[in-house]
Write a structure and sequence with these properties.
The chain is of the alpha+beta class. The chain has two helices and seven strands.
Length: 141
């Protein structure tokens, strides 16, 4: 699982997720490394466990000849209160890390495998993630 080596603050402010005020990604919107990529269409928080599950699916298809790039990193801590605890009494303890994904962001890239294999792998990886995704490819002229 991915997580930062160290963080400046243990707990962050929660942040707001109003669907109309999310905006679109300005960074990481074009393929930079591979020939095929998985692009987010909706916004959401992607946990490190979900990223790892998707990475395993893609890596299984890519085998030895293919290369996989992960274009998002979970650097935002999220907290959770224990089960059956009453309201109040402060903020919960940090549980894990999430990556904030906006529409248009490239999540994974694949190269070194056949097009049909890469598309199949990325579709299966997209099923593991909480965002709606689509597979894109580099136009070769």
């Amino acid at each position: 699982m991915l997580f930062p080596k160290k963080v400046k603050f243990r707990k962050w402010f929660t942040g707001r997720e109003h669907p109309d005020k999310v905006g679109v990604a300005t960074r990481g919107t074009k393929l930079a490394f591979g020939s095929y990529g998985l692009k987010a269409i909706t916004h959401d928080r992607v946990t490190s466990n979900q990223i790892e599950a998707a990475r395993k699916v893609v890596a299984r298809y890519a085998s030895k000849s293919g290369k996989v790039w992960i274009r998002i990193f979970p650097d935002r801590p999220f907290t959770q209160k224990p089960a059956e605890v009453k309201m109040g009494k402060g903020k919960g303890d940090p549980v894990g890390f999430v990556a904030i994904v906006k529409p248009g962001r490239i999540l994974f890239e694949v190269d070194g495998v056949e097009g049909t294999v890469a598309i199949e792998a990325l579709k299966k990886a997209g099923a593991k993630l909480p965002v709606k995704t689509k597979v894109i490819s580099r136009e070769l002229f």
